[in-house]
TrEMBL record:
InterPro entries per UniProt: Haem_peroxidase (IPR002016), Haem_peroxidase_sf (IPR010255), Peroxidase_pln (IPR000823), Peroxidases_AS (IPR019794), Peroxidases_heam-ligand_BS (IPR019793), Secretory_peroxidase (IPR033905)
Cofactor dependency: Ca(2+); heme b
Top-level taxonomic group: Eukaryota
UniProt-listed CDD domains: secretory_peroxidase
Site (Transition state stabilizer): 33
UniProtKB keywords: Calcium, Disulfide bond, Glycoprotein, Heme, Hydrogen peroxide, Iron, Metal-binding, Oxidoreductase, Peroxidase, Secreted
Disulfide bond annotation, renumbered to this chain: 6-86, 39-44, 92-286, 171-197
Subcellular location(s) per record: Secreted
Lineage: Eukaryota, Viridiplantae, Streptophyta, Embryophyta, Tracheophyta
Protein name: Peroxidase
Comment on bound cofactor: Binds 2 calcium ions per subunit. Binds 1 heme b (iron(II)-protoporphyrin IX) group per subunit.
Annotated EC: 1.11.1.7
Chief location of this protein within or outside the cell: secreted
Length: 290
């Protein structure tokens, strides 16, 4: 739809996202995560971008997003540039989906064909954001069911978790794991991570999810899991004697399979309950209803 009515939209978005990622490499991870955190709440409708109003409970302050979801201004900037060339044509939801793809490609990750034609919601749901977004403390069965509830398979879930090959995490989200002396964590890895994450301070200190190649989209995440070097509990449970071990092992050996599955899983994720046709609106500014 967009391509016919706004032929330069995709190039405009891509250039905008590339500039943002070249300014700050970590932004690639943040933009992929923003699309994910959008789609898991009310579907891929850009509800995560709405600010608080008397009638809207913003998702930005939900526990999984507060002080952690980022990149809002990058999406808003891409939206402004698209509005300049084609006012009222391209939804914020589509821009989020395209931005995730362009962010992946900008750091050496896969590209995929983004379906277009989503429309934007006029509502948001902090309560659904608090219940439906997977937690970094989740066990395997909880993760599998959280993704199944959105129509995504266990294999999709493992592939999408592979986006943790880039990006960073805050100390308070992995502190328990690195101080647990558990059998599911490499002792040397734990002690290295404690340097940036004291046992009782530094909650927001950042550490790369993948220490080896933190800025490259590759399959190193899965190699880390096989060495018990997953940073988050929800990472390591993918390889801990359970049903997904074989998928992790396969992705660690076959980077091309991972990259292909990741792209396919992102397409499926982008299909979660979109607003189309007469449903929803095209917001002029992503953070507010027209």
């Amino acid at each position: 739809m967009v391509i016919n009515t706004c032929p330069n939209a995709l190039t405009t978005i891509r250039n905008s996202i590339r500039r943002a990622v070249s300014r700050e490499r970590r932004m690639a991870a943040s933009l992929i995560r923003l699309h994910f955190h959008d789609c898991f709440v009310q579907g891929c409708d850009a509800s995560i971008l709405l600010d608080e109003t008397p009638t809207i409970q913003t998702e930005k302050t939900a526990f999984p997003n507060a002080n952690s979801a980022r990149g809002y201004e990058v999406i808003e900037s891409a939206k402004r540039e698209v509005e300049r060339i084609c006012p009222g044509v391209v939804s914020c939801a589509d821009i989020l989906a395209v931005a995730a793809r362009d962010a992946s490609a900008a750091v050496g990750g896969p590209s995929w064909n983004v379906k277009l034609g989503r429309r934007d919601s006029t509502t948001a749901s902090r309560s659904v954001a608090n219940t439906d977004l997977p937690s970094p403390f989740s066990d395997l069965s909880t993760l599998i069911s959280a993704f199944a509830n959105k129509g995504l398979s266990a294999r999709d879930m493992v592939a999408l978790s592979g986006s943790h090959t880039i990006g960073q995490s805050q100390c308070f989200l992995f502190r328990n794991r690195i101080y647990s002396n558990g059998t599911d964590i490499n002792a040397g890895f734990a002690s290295t991570r404690r340097r940036r994450c004291p046992s009782n301070s530094g909650d927001s200190n950042l550490t790369a999810l993948d220490l080896v190649t933190p800025n490259s989209f590759d399959n190193n995440y899965f190699k880390n899991l096989m060495q018990r070097k997953g940073l988050l509990q929800s990472d390591q449970v993918l390889f801990s004697g359970g049903s997904t071990d074989s998928i992790v092992s396969e992705y660690s050996r076959n980077p091309r399979t991972f990259l292909s599955d990741f792209g396919n899983a992102m397409i499926k994720m982008g299909d979660i309950e979109p607003l189309t046709g007469q449903n929803g609106i095209i917001r002029r500014i992503c953070s507010a209803i027209n």
